[in-house]
Specification:
Elements (H helix, E strand, L loop, with lengths): L6 E13 L5 E2 L13 E3 L8 E5 L4 E4 L6 E13 L11 E10 L5 E19 L1 H13 L7 E4 L8 E5 L7 E6 L2 E13 L1
Antiparallel strand pairs: 1-6, 1-9, 2-5, 3-6, 4-5, 7-8, 8-12, 9-10, 10-12, 11-12
Length: 194
């Protein structure tokens, strides 16, 4: 049985803007200061491979161009990492209740569950140097600050869970040399509130 290959979307910015069919300019965006050149763009009438080519304070230029006219179109700008291989995951998502225990003066004990945490231990293997650098940028500039991201178990599916890092350790493993670079392995632990 083949296992699905995942992808990660992060640094997700929601905006609205106006599109014109066969034109790459999206106008009337309230503020583009958090949008970066190279980010992917999703929305009605936006090709699935569209990325930001340039921007001003209220517009962005994308390529490929819009395929529909639209006013105040809901848009998402995001960074994306698509893996080449499925991660090694020895167990499924562990559900860990986060509980509080209190004891009354009478000695009666009571347990309250505040929330249930879902935890996944994933070991990403056979990472090319390019993917390793992309994951390092994701870690250094985003995930290590506790920000959430979307994890798609199958990069061809639209189904995802929103996670954050559970452990902030960065412990890459050099698997083998490939010319002047390495093939990497990287264990990461994700968490979410179920």
């Amino acid at each position: 049985m083949a296992h699905a290959i995942p992808k990660i979307h992060y640094n997700i910015i929601s905006k609205t803007g106006d599109t014109v069919i066969s034109n790459g300019t999206i106008s009337n965006i309230s503020d583009t200061s958090l949008i970066s050149v190279g980010q992917y763009v999703a929305g009605v009438g936006i090709p699935t491979t569209a990325t930001v080519q340039s921007k001003t304070s209220t517009t962005v230029v994308i390529s490929p161009v819009a395929t529909a006219n639209g006013t105040a179109v809901a848009l998402e700008f995001y960074n994306k990492i698509e893996l080449d291989y499925p991660p090694v995951e020895t167990t499924g998502e562990k559900l860990l209740p986060q509980e509080r225990r209190s004891i009354a003066l009478s000695g009666l004990s009571q347990v309250s569950v505040d929330y249930v945490e879902g935890v996944r231990d994933l070991n990403f293997r056979f990472l090319s140097n390019t993917l390793y650098v992309a994951l390092k940028a994701f870690y250094d500039g985003y995930a290590v600050f506790g920000d959430t991201f979307r994890y798609f178990d199958d990069k061809t599916s639209g189904t995802y869970n929103t996670y954050e890092l559970k452990k902030f350790d960065w412990e890459p493993q050099k698997i083998t040399a490939r010319g002047t670079v390495y093939v990497w392995g990287l264990p990461l632990q994700f968490r979410r509130v179920v």
